[in-house]
C-alpha cells in the first residue's frame, strides 16, 4: 500500500513530519461493501435484542461537521467517537453533495497521542450524488504515537476519486478509558498518597442534576469505576479510577453536597497532561 498523505497533512494542518509509511502505515482502498455490523437481518435482530451496536450505553457526543462540502469538493463528513465492546469507533456520516458519484475511498490518520489508527479499510464502493452513508469504523490504538496539542487532536486524510482531503477533529478522552480501570481500594489509597500534591488538579462542574449513585452509574458506563464512597460532614465523597489505553492511570475524587448542584472534582495522575481532558469529559457526561 502507498502512503497517500505524503506529508501533505502536516503541511496543511501543521505538526511534525509524517513517519515513513505514513501515520496509518499506508492506506488500503476500500472495495468491499460496508459491513455495517453484519447483514441487515443480523443488525435488526441485534437492535431488537439489544446485542447490536445500539446496545452501547456509553456517552457518544453529537456529531460535528469535520469536513464541509465546500472544502471536500462536494464531500461532507460529520462525525463523532464512541467506545463499544472495548473498541473505539469513528462514527461518520458521509454525504455526497456533488453532481456525480464518488469512488475509491480510503482513510488515514496522522500520528497522534494515543496511537489511534483505523483497524480496517474504509469500505465504500460508491457514494452516489445526494447519497448519505453512515459508517462506524473500528479503530485500534497500536499506531504511531506523537504527542499532540491539544492532546486528543486527531488529524485525518480522506481520499476518493476526486482528491485527498484533510481535516482535524477532537476525540473525547473517554474513548481511551479501558475496561481494566477498576482499582483495588488499598491500591487507590496508596497511589493517591504516593502521587505528589503538585500533580493534583481541581475543577468544579456546575449544575449537575445527579445523585452520587447516579454519578457512579453514569461514569461506570464509560469505564470510570467507583472504588469507594463515603459521607463526611454531610458531603458525599466518590473515589474513581480510570486506566487509559496507553497504561496511564487517573484517580478522581468527587465531592457533592445535597441540594448543591456544583460538584467538586479533584484529579491526580503521574501524567497531569490528561487532566483537562478528564475534566471536559466528566462535565459532558454528567450533563448528558
Written account of the structure:
With 288 residues, the chain is an alpha+beta fold. Helix content is 16%, strand content 33%. The protein has 5 helices and 15 strands. The chain has helices at 8-13, 40-49, 185-194, 212-220, 275-286; strands at 64-67, 75-84, 87-96, 102-103, 106-109, 117-118, 126-127, 132-140, 153-159, 164-170, 200-205, 225-232, 235-243, 249-256, 263-268. The strands form 4 sheets. Strands 1-2-3-8-6 form a 5-stranded antiparallel sheet, with no helix packed on it. A hairpin with a 7-residue loop joins β1 and β2. The radius of gyration is 21 Å and the shape is elongated. It starts with 7 loop residues before the first helix and ends with a helix. 33% of the residues are buried. Mean pLDDT is 86; it is low at 4-54.
Which word captures the global form? elongated
Overall residue-averaged pLDDT value: 86
Span between N and C termini?
Answer: 42 Å
Count of beta strands: 15
H/E topology pattern: HHEEEEEEEEEEHEHEEEEH
Strand order of the largest sheet: 1-2-3-8-6
How much helical structure, as a percent, in the residues?
10-25%
Per DSSP, the total helix count is 5
Q: Kindly name the structural category.
A: alpha+beta
Low-pLDDT residue intervals, each spanning 5 or more residues: 4-54
Portion of residues in beta strands equals: 25-35%
**Radius of gyration from the CA trace?**
21 Å
Biggest sheet descriptor = 5 strands, antiparallel
Amino acid at each position: 500500500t502507498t502512503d497517500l498523505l505524503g506529508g501533505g497533512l502536516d503541511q496543511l494542518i501543521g505538526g511534525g513530519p509524517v513517519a515513513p509509511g505514513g501515520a496509518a502505515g499506508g492506506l488500503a482502498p476500500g472495495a468491499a461493501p460496508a459491513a455495517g455490523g453484519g447483514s441487515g437481518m443480523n443488525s435488526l435482530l441485534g437492535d431488537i435484542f439489544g446485542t447490536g451496536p445500539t446496545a452501547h450505553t456509553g456517552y457518544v457526543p453529537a456529531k460535528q461537521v469535520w469536513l464541509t462540502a465546500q472544502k471536500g469538493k462536494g464531500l461532507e463528513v460529520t462525525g463523532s467517537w464512541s467506545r463499544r465492546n472495548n473498541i473505539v469507533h469513528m462514527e461518520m456520516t458521509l454525504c455526497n453533495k456533488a453532481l456525480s458519484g464518488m469512488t475509491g475511498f480510503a482513510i488515514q490518520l496522522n500520528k497522534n497521542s494515543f496511537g489511534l489508527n483505523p483497524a480496517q479499510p474504509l469500505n465504500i464502493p460508491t457514494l452516489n450524488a445526494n447519497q448519505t452513508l453512515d459508517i462506524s469504523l473500528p479503530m485500534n490504538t497500536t499506531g504511531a504515537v506523537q504527542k499532540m496539542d491539544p492532546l486528543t487532536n486527531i488529524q485525518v486524510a480522506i481520499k476518493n476519486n476526486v482528491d485527498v482531503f484533510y481535516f482535524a477533529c477532537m476525540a473525547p478522552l473517554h474513548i481511551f478509558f479501558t475496561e481494566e480501570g477498576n482499582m483495588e481500594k488499598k491500591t487507590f489509597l496508596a497511589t493517591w498518597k504516593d502521587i505528589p500534591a503538585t500533580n493534583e488538579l481541581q475543577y468544579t462542574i456546575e449544575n449537575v442534576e445527579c445523585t452520587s449513585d447516579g454519578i457512579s452509574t453514569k461514569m461506570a458506563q464509560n469505564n470510570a469505576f467507583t472504588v469507594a464512597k463515603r459521607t463526611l460532614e454531610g458531603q458525599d465523597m466518590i473515589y474513581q479510577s480510570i486506566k487509559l489505553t496507553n497504561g496511564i492511570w487517573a484517580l478522581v475524587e468527587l465531592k457533592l453536597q445535597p441540594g448543591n448542584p456544583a460538584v467538586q472534582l479533584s484529579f491526580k495522575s503521574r501524567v497531569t497532561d490528561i487532566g483537562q481532558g478528564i475534566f471536559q469529559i466528566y462535565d459532558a457526561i454528567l450533563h448528558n
